């Protein structure tokens, strides 16, 4: 209970819970819409989804400052590729949050002259760029982990004490795809934060891909992806050691 209270006391923790609720409603609404006797439930889910989405906008109002801080932190990364990816991703996230704030100002009626569709597309575009750069960083980190696993495995295979049976089995794994998938599995298994970050970014990018018309999805896919991403986000907030660290 204490851990739950600490989690909900954090703005990010509350936002992740609201986000999980929002995408759960979207997924359930998609699954129930074809059923003729579920119109009332679908309408309630739609209203709840809208209310939760509005509540999340309040939590995101201060995220511009956090994104600017991330730019400063990313500049201290020792590896060039993650440093460039993280700085550019954070810059795009800053622009995304600015666009999101402008859309929020319009939604509450403080500035009715704002072109909602234009700013919505700008927000989706920079959110997409941010996630794409984050995925590039994830793929780079995965390649480093796979290289390390392959190096460790080759050392074991060359060891004199290697069991001949195990060595022969390892020799049989010569097919490229099988070897690649094995290395990928072992790399992600040894580095759960990297797995979580990759899954989160991959699921998140489905929404801007749909909004920008790059790859059209249905609300069910977007809802499922958002829910999985939200669960991954909840894990990283509840257990900070599961958050991918900047090297």
Automatic annotation (TrEMBL):
Record's keyword annotation contains Isomerase: no
Main location group: membrane
One of the protein's GO biological processes: regulation of peroxisome size
GO MF annotations in UniProt: protein homodimerization activity
Localization, UniProt: Peroxisome membrane
Keywords annotated in UniProt: Membrane, Peroxisome, Peroxisome biogenesis, Transmembrane, Transmembrane helix
GO CC annotations on file: peroxisomal membrane; protein-containing complex
Entry's transmembrane regions: 220-239
Name of this protein: Peroxisomal membrane protein 11A isoform X1
Record organism: Tursiops truncatus (Atlantic bottle-nosed dolphin)
Gene: PEX11A
């Amino acid at each position: 209970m204490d851990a739950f209270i600490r989690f909900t006391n954090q703005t990010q923790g509350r936002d992740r819970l609201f986000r999980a609720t929002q995408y759960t409603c979207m997924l359930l609404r998609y699954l129930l819409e074809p059923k003729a006797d579920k119109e009332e439930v679908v309408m309630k889910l739609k209203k709840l989804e809208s209310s939760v989405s509005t509540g999340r906008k309040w939590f995101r109002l201060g995220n511009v400052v956090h994104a600017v801080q991330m730019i400063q932190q990313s500049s201290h990364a020792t590896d060039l590729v993650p440093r460039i990816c993280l700085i550019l991703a954070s810059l795009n996230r800053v622009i995304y949050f600015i666009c999101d704030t402008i859309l929020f100002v319009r939604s509450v009626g403080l500035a009715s002259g704002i072109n909602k569709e234009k700013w919505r597309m700008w927000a989706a575009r920079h959110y997409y760029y941010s996630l794409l750069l984050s995925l590039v960083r994830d793929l780079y980190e995965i390649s480093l982990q796979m290289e390390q696993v392959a190096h460790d495995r080759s050392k074991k295979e060359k060891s004199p004490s290697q069991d001949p049976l195990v060595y022969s089995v390892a020799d049989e794994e010569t097919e490229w795809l099988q070897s690649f998938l094995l290395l990928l599995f072992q790399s992600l298994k040894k580095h759960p934060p990297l797995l979580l970050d990759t899954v989160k970014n991959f699921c998140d990018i489905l929404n801007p891909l749909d909004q920008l018309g790059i790859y059209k999805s249905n609300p069910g896919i977007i809802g499922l992806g958002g829910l999985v991403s939200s669960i991954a986000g909840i894990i990283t907030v509840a257990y900070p050691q599961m958050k991918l660290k900047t090297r």
